[in-house]
Each structure stands twice: as structure tokens, then as C-alpha cells.
Amino acid sequence: MSQLTDLIDGRTRLYGLFAHPAEHSLSPLMHNLSFQRRQINAVYLAFDLTSDFSGAIQSIRELNMGGVNLSMPFKKQVIPYLDELTPTAKIVGAVNTVIHRQGRLIGANTDGTGFFENLRAHHYVIKNKTVTILGAGGAGLSIIAAGASEGLRMIHVFKRHNATFPKVEARLRDLARFYQTPIRLYAYDDRTNLQRAVRASDFLINTTHIGMGNDRQSMPLTGEEMKLLLPTTVVCDVIYEPRKTRLLLAAEASGCETVNGLGMLIYQGAQSFKLWTHEEMPVDAVRAAIEKESENKNGGIGS
To answer: What is residue 203's three-state secondary structure?
Structure first.
């Protein structure tokens, strides 16, 4: 990124990430490299928000930013501050990309479509497959909606039976009706149905935080449940730091193919980039830069 300062002048457009924490993010690397490669006069920064979220959103207009990405816990929190939602963001009820157009803030969600774009890049067939999804937060709901639109045969969803369970259940009923795709929601501690779903699924997708941060030694499934996986099941984790969670390592030991969250990160970012700039992100160059960053950190992904 040594040439970045050569591009900054009075006309440089600012983009960024609003998150907490934010310092670990790979998004500045991805987008600044893409701005350079596409010769776009813009810069992307990561902002760690710990207070005054409403002020941060207002700054998009006041600073004439081109747009921002959002990470948890802001994907749902941002919605009341926006002027418009794309159909996908409205269905999912979560936003990971804000586009600023002539003073109006438009919320979009590229998480789910980015996830399945990555699976296609790995040459996996999606249509008419059965999936089990662990978790129904912002990323989980986005993947559920995108999967339904891709023509999945059946979607099993497991989430904690907490205060949000009835609201998620109602949203999934709406998604199932809209896309004409069967979606079944279960409590996460319903281990009998979890075991049945795992056994019947072509894809197992973890969208929870289990396996990252201080929870790296944990798995969203027990050892006995992992034994139910068929070797033909593709096990996916939206986590990309660590590169291989304990779930993915255990799945590989069972003979399953695995996909981590790095590709999803890149492809959801590519879709955000196109929404902002109407240009294609140089995905291969971005992936190579991330791999180089990983090597420089002695095998760590840098997130």
C-alpha cells in the first residue's frame, strides 16, 4: 500500500468500516488495494466505535463519505438511521453496507450473497441441497435468505431459545413464504433434531461466534454429533480468524471438505465495492494480498 498517499488529495472520497472492535479488520487492505487497482480516488479506514453511534452515521452525510461497512453489533442498530433499505436488507432485517447517494443513506446486505458466491467459486452446487445453519444473527439470517433465493431444498436453523426466538421465528416464516422454501427453526439445545438435521444435510454452516476470539477451543457441535457427519457433507464456518476453527479441523478429520469465512469476507466486500463504485473488485489480487499478509504474520490471518 506504499502508493496510497500518492492518490490522496482534496477530491479523495472517504469510505470505512464502523465496528467494535475494528483494528483486526482486513477490509482496509481489501478496499484500498481495489481503489488503487481501479484507479479510484478514494481511501478506506476502520473506525472503532465505542459511543455515539448516531453521530457516526450522521458523519457519513456531513463528511460526504461514499459509504461504510458495518459489523456486529451495528447491523441491526443502523436501520432506524437509514433513508432506504434494499429488498434483501429489508427481508433480513440487517445491514452490512451503507451507500451514500446525494444525501440519502441506503442500507444493503451482501453477507449471504457473498457466502454463496464463494461456494460457487469453489464449484459447489447449491440448488436443491439441504443445509443446517447454526445461529440466526445478522450473518445467519442473510445466509438463510440468500440460500432460499438460491433454490435450496430445505433449510434447518438452530438458535438459542432466548428473547429473540419468537421474532426470528416470525421472520423465517416470512422468508419461507416469500421464497417458497421450507425453513425449520429449532432451539439450539434440541439435540435430537440437531443430530437428525446434521445427518441429512449437504452443507453444515456455522454462523455463531463459537470458535473465535476467547472461544477458540470450543465447537458448536459435540464430538458425538460430529461423528454423524457424512464424508459428503461440506462444513462451512463464517469465522476466518483462526483460518481453521476446531469445527473445521474436526470435520476434516471426519473426511469432510471445509470452507472457512475468508472467501465470504472477500465476496461480500466485492459486492459492497461494486455498490459504491460500480466497478468490479480485483478479487484475485485481493486474495493474494491477504495471503501475503497472513504469511507476514507467521500463519495468522490478521482478520
So the answer is: strand
Q: What would the pLDDT profile of 147-200 be if each residue is shown by its tens digit?
A: 999 999 999 999 999 999 999 999 999 999 999 999 999 999 999 999 999 999
- Asked if residue 303 has pLDDT above 60, the reply is no
| C-alpha to C-alpha distance for 84 and 102, rounded to whole angstroms | 13
Question: For the segment 193-224, what is each residue's pLDDT rounded down to a tens digit?
Answer: 999 999 999 999 999 999 887 788 899 998 88
Q: For residue 302, what pLDDT is reported? A: 31
Q: Distance (Å, rounded) from C-alpha 285 to C-alpha 300? A: 19
Length of the chain: 303
> Can you tell me the distance from the alpha carbon of 193 to that of 148, in angstroms, rounded to the nearest whole number?
20
Burial 256-292 (b: 16+ CB within 10 A, else e): bebbbbbbbbbbbbbbbbebbbeeebbbeebeebbee
Could you give phi then psi for residue 44, rounded to 5 degrees? -125, 125
Both ends of the chain: CA-CA distance in Å?
A: 17
Q: CA nearest 267: which of 160, 112, 137, 147?
A: 112
As annotated, the active-site residues are 75
Instruction: State the DSSP H helix or E strand holding residue 62, giving kind and residue range, or none if neither.
Output: helix 53-62
Residue 72 burial (C-beta neighbours within 10 Å; 0-12, 13-18, 19+):
middle
Q: What is the DSSP string of 218-262?
A: --SS-HHHHTT--TTPEEEES--SSSS-HHHHHHHHTT-EEE-SH
Residue 1 has pLDDT above 80, yes or no: no
